Amino acid sequence: xxxxxxxxxxxxxxxxxxxxxxxxxxxxxxxxxxxxxxxxxxxxxxxxxxxxxxxxxxxxxxxxxxxxxxxxxxxxxxxxxxxxxxxxxxxxxxxxxxxxxxxxxxxxxxxxxxxxxxxxxxxxxxxxxxxxxxxxxxxxxxxxxxxxxxxxxxxxxxxxxxxxxxxxxxxxxxxxxxxxxxxxxxxxxxxxxxxxxxxxxxxxxxxxxxxxxxxxxxxxxxxxxx
Length: 226
Prior knowledge:
Protein name: Response regulator transcription factor
GO molecular function, one term: DNA binding
Helix content: 40-55%
Largest sheet: 5 strands, parallel
Number of strands: 5
Pfam families: GerE (PF00196), Response_reg (PF00072)
Mean pLDDT: 83
CATH superfamily of the largest domain: Response regulator
Organism: Cryobacterium frigoriphilum
CATH class of the largest domain: Alpha Beta
Structural class: alpha/beta
Strand order of the largest sheet: 2-1-3-4-5
Keywords: DNA-binding, Phosphoprotein, Transcription, Transcription regulation
Distance between the termini: 33 Å
Strand content: 5-15%
Radius of gyration: 18 Å
């Protein structure tokens, strides 16, 4: 994979200075990552995001004043800000997870994750990918449809109007992606190469004007496509 010509620029948002200091130490221990700013609440995060244009924002959920979820919604909706948002929380709460995804966050990580996991998450988001594990995707599925993911039926053609601009193969890829399959699993299912699947996923996101596969999953269930 081609290395980035410039370092990954990160903005840290947390109301505890000691937490921000810890994250800064972890991230800047990795060559190619630089912390360009810090904020202690959601309003400051929005201001800093507009001023610093970071690649990735590590966003706390619960903060005094404007919370991280609301700040994320504002940041993602602002066309002048192209930052990916990684939500960080000490609580494994599904309401936080689903709200964060619906507001446009590109990843969700617990604060007690390993330093390596934090570094990897920032690198993943900086590449333009989403940090959404199969387990998390299936939790989203169960939340939206109210039953286990394995029982979700393939939608009828009449329900696929939002996918009209996709080719037949892109539609296949999209529906598998929405079920929580990884690129490798999609490739195995369709008997094609990983590079081919990655190309199809990129085209699907572009045509549907979606930032990443997280939004693709939410899009699919909000439109009752699966």
